[in-house]
Write a structure and sequence with these properties.
This protein is of the alpha/beta class. It is built from 39 helices and 15 strands. The strands form four sheets. A five-stranded parallel beta sheet has the order 4-3-5-6-7, with helices on both faces. Strands 9-10-11-8-12 form a five-stranded parallel beta sheet, with helices on both faces. A three-stranded antiparallel beta sheet has the order 13-15-14. It holds the Pfam family AAA_22.
């Protein structure tokens, strides 16, 4: 029989049998050791065991000598880590394991192990990633003996075949070394496919090919798949290196001084206490091109200087490292490994499109591993997409979630994802211990932080949807420089990510990281102060700004960016201090209108109204104003009229011209409910004059109101003048909502005057940006009604009915109703359309339109 190791084929005759070294603690696995010895002997091999020989030398010298003369290594592990000798930092058990890196290894772990020691747990956690040929659990000595017998037989047959292939390829005798390449596989074998990383593999492989990139570090949060990516890249490029790719797992190494000795052990270098590891490695690697894959460097980043020295002395050496933090060497090229692509929350693709997304592909693949008949269907695709989105595309989290489909269908699993860290259970036993659960993966990263960094991480969990450096400084109560230093440190540890935006850097945190950080914040004494500072910062963002005279689009974009933080702040004020909320709501209602958030805003207003007695007259007036205008939009006419009565009762009780004119404008929106269009126009005109005198940007909304009321009263010439003013004013203020809404009304006027091409041009401009344009629901329904009038004027009554149905469907789904001043005109238009087609045709077309989503409704307006 033959065994190929370290590039040399060794041939043994029956009287010189292959030697199999058996490593384990002696007492607790005595029965298992005896069973393994019998299995080895049955294959005509020689068991090499510590207890079988004389011991004239110290134990360490004895087992090292035995190991040096052995051909195959068998490791048996259960609960004890073993004895640590003098001048050693690891037990003899781990020392034997390290020294065996150059030979074939078969490893077995006894289960269950309720009292397993922590250091043995850490060691076992990396066995699979060490590149072993076999790693199996067992329960009894008999089962172990069977496994060892079968695995040894398979190992030897595979080695024989490998040696024969190498000899054939080289055209030489079996004794000729095929190359300076390790005989054992260094890269760990993986049992599952790598999904969604094709571009990453190509990019990193290309980076390694560049002469200046001799150290490439893959960074990213725990569970993002750095190790798997590194192995895939190494497999792609290892043919470039005569030695192949050498994989060195370092997760269990917590001392930077132990990194180079571990590298030396994996390379098969004998221990030499008299010689520094750097010297030995530099001599061994020399000029030969070699790729070292150093996995999990984050807890030993202080080894960076040694790695820099090794690179300087070994021109042919390239290092591919994985770490949650960069090493910060000048020779380093960092490659940030991001989460997998997930579906956008605002637009759910088709099932076929979802099936092509990397995150969904991974979920389906891993779900099929536990349920062979799992498939992505029309019914479960939305739940699968939402699971992947909530898990931020983090591969580990997705794999853990998919494993749960053994017991739960996707919709039931989605319902349990409120607490991500614990809802997903544990992963496969061949994962490292730190990645068996999502909680363990996150806690591993957090455990590497300083106390100040942990406090900052906990503080940052109060943010939702990201934050700016300014916000972090305010909420943490730290100086800006100290805040930036801590944010930089957390980013280096891949616990926060940085997005570079036009408004400056914005920081984010994965949902799983935020959840663990929030747990820590909840248990800290400053949790209340942090939440209070957060609420007041974002309340102040709205309260002290109001609608600016210029750059309204920019201001609204900032509100949109901070929308999640505003929600958190509002909930805090509702629980602790409602007095700032009426003013905040008065400013936010226009934003709610633009973003389709009226039902949510109404719920908050209702909650504050229950405690309106705690407010002063100004606060009550602002609350009534916002209640009135939001009630109009959601179609709560009774509440709107009640609010008007309340506003009139407060007249003269506060001195704020802007608030008085705004209240007048709100009244003008509500009076059409009672049919008083003339009274509404009079009040709106008065409000417009007052706001113009104050040079308030809100005057543009008053002009829009006046123009729409004039349209309702068939005063088209005057209406056109006011609406053109709004269009121009909206452009000057950078307010797309104003310009788009004004153009929808101008389009209706163009239809009335018979200028149909102009009407189509205006509608296209109102929905500028194509089918993906972010047009507010209110503006889009105005545009659909105008498009219905245009279609009818062109003789296409069915298309007109479809457009009216689309407007109705969008409103109903958003909890809205037609604007009071526009209701009579829309009802008259619907009657004309119904007269132009038969009853069933109108109903069918209207129903078809009601089913259109936002995107298809935009396409309808644009004539598609």
């Amino acid at each position: 029989m033959t065994v190929q190791e370290q590039g040399t084929v060794v041939i043994r005759t029956p009287d010189q049998r292959l030697r199999v070294f058996v490593s384990s603690t002696l007492t607790e696995l005595a029965g298992e050791r005896a069973a393994v010895a019998r299995a080895i002997a049955a294959l005509r091999l020689t068991p090499v065991m510590f207890e079988l020989g004389a011991r004239p030398h110290p134990p360490r010298e004895l087992y090292r000598a035995y190991l040096a003369q052995s051909d195959v290594f068998i490791g048996l592990y259960w609960q004890r880590y073993g004895w640590i000798g003098p001048d050693m930092d690891v037990s003899g058990l781990e020392d034997e394991f390290r020294l065996s890196g150059s030979m074939p290894r078969l490893l077995y772990v006894k289960e269950p192990a309720p009292e397993r020691e922590a250091r043995l747990t850490a060691m076992i956690g990396e066995l699979q990633s060490e590149g072993t040929d076999s790693y199996r659990p067992f329960r009894t000595p008999r089962e172990l003996a069977r496994l060892v017998r079968d695995d040894l037989a398979l190992l030897l047959s595979e080695r024989f075949a490998t040696a024969e292939r190498a000899a054939d390829t080289a055209g030489s005798s079996p004794g000729s070394p095929p190359a300076d390449r390790p005989g054992t596989r260094s890269l760990p074998l993986t049992s599952t496919s790598l999904i969604g990383r094709e571009q990453d593999i190509a990019a990193v492989a290309a980076l390694l090919a560049s002469p200046e990139a001799r150290l490439v570090t893959l960074t990213g949060p725990g569970g993002v798949g750095k190790t798997r990516l590194a192995v895939a890249v190494a497999e792609r490029v290892q043919a470039r290196y005569p030695r192949g790719a050498v994989f060195v797992p370092l997760a269990s190494v917590d001392d930077p001084a132990r990194v180079l000795p571990r590298v030396a052990a994996v390379l098969g270098l004998p221990p030499d206490a008299a010689r520094p590891p750097l010297e030995a490695l530099a001599e061994h690697l020399a000029e030969a091109p070699t790729l070292l894959v150093l996995d999990n460097l984050e807890q030993v980043v202080a080894v960076a200087a040694d790695l820099d020295g090794l690179l300087a002395r070994c021109p042919g050496l390239t290092i591919l490292a994985t770490s949650r933090t960069a090493l910060r060497l000048r020779a380093e090229r960092e490659y940030a490994v991001g989460p997998l692509t997930v579906p956008e929350p605002s637009h759910l693709p088709t099932t076929e499109e979802l099936a092509a997304l990397p995150a969904v592909r991974l979920f389906v693949d891993r779900a099929r591993a536990v349920r062979y008949d799992f498939a992505l269907t029309e019914d479960n695709a939305p739940a699968v997409a939402e699971i992947c989105r909530r898990l931020d595309g983090l591969p580990l989290a997705i794999e853990l979630a998919a494993a749960r489909t053994r017991l739960l269908p996707p919709d039931a699993l989605l319902a349990r994802l409120g607490t991500r860290l614990d809802a997903l259970g544990s992963g496969p036993v061949d994962l490292p211990e730190r990645q068996r659960t999502l909680r363990a993966a996150v806690e591993w990263s957090v455990g590497l932080l300083t106390e100040a960094e942990r406090r900052m991480l906990a503080t940052l969990s109060v943010f939702a949807g990201g934050w700016s450096a300014e916000a972090a400084a305010h909420v943490s109560g730290l100086p800006e420089d100290a805040t930036l230093d801590l944010l930089d440190a957390l980013a280096r540890h891949s616990l926060v990510t940085i997005d570079l935006t036009d408004a400056g850097p914005r920081f984010r945190m994965l949902a799983a990281v935020r959840e663990l950080a929030a747990e820590r914040l909840a248990g800290s004494p400053d949790a209340h102060d942090v939440a209070r500072r957060h609420a007041r910062y974002f309340g102040g963002l709205v309260e002290h700004a109001d609608w600016p005279t210029e750059r309204q689009g920019e201001w609204a974009a900032r509100l949109r960016t901070e929308e999640e933080n505003l929600r958190v702040a509002i909930r805090w004020f509702l629980a602790h201090d409602i007095t700032p909320l009426p003013h905040v709501f008065r400013i936010l209602w226009l934003f709610w209108q633009m973003r389709g958030r009226m039902p949510e805003g109404r719920a908050w207003i209702d909650e504050v109204q229950l405690r309106a007695g705690a407010l002063d007259d100004r606060g009550r007036a602002e609350l009534l104003l916002t209640s009135a205008v939001t009630a109009v939009e959601v179609g709560d006419d009774d509440r709107a009229l009640t609010a008007v009565d309340g506003l009139r009762a407060l007249e003269g009780r506060f001195d704020d011209p802007y608030l008085v004119d705004s209240a007048q404008l709100a009244v003008s929106w509500i009076l059409p409910i009672t049919g008083d269009l003339d009274g509404a126009l009079q009040v709106a005109s008065s409000a417009l004059d007052g706001l113009r005198r104050q040079n308030e940007p809100f005057a543009a909304f008053a002009a829009l109101t006046v123009g729409m009321l004039e349209m309702a009263l068939d005063r088209d010439h005057a209406a056109r003048a006011h609406l053109a003013e709004v269009d121009e004013h909206g452009g000057r203020l950078d307010n797309e909502w104003l310009t788009a809404t004004a153009r929808t009304q101008l389009a209706t006027l163009a239809v009335r005057s018979g200028d149909l091409d102009e009407a189509q041009t205006l509608l296209a401009a109102a929905t500028d940006g194509g089918e993906d344009a972010e047009v507010s629901t209110l503006t889009l329904t105005f545009a659909l009604v105008a498009a219905a009038g245009l279609a009818l004027a062109r003789g296409d009554a069915r298309r007109a009915a479809t457009a009216l149905g689309a407007a109705d469907g969008l409103r109903r789904r958003a909890g809205l109703r037609a604007w009071p001043s526009a209701r009579p005109g829309e009802a008259a238009l619907a009657a004309r359309v119904a007269d132009a087609v038969d009853a069933s045709g109108f109903a069918d077309a209207f129903a078809a339109g009601a089913g259109l989503d936002h995107r298809r409704a935009v396409a309808l307006v644009r004539g598609r």
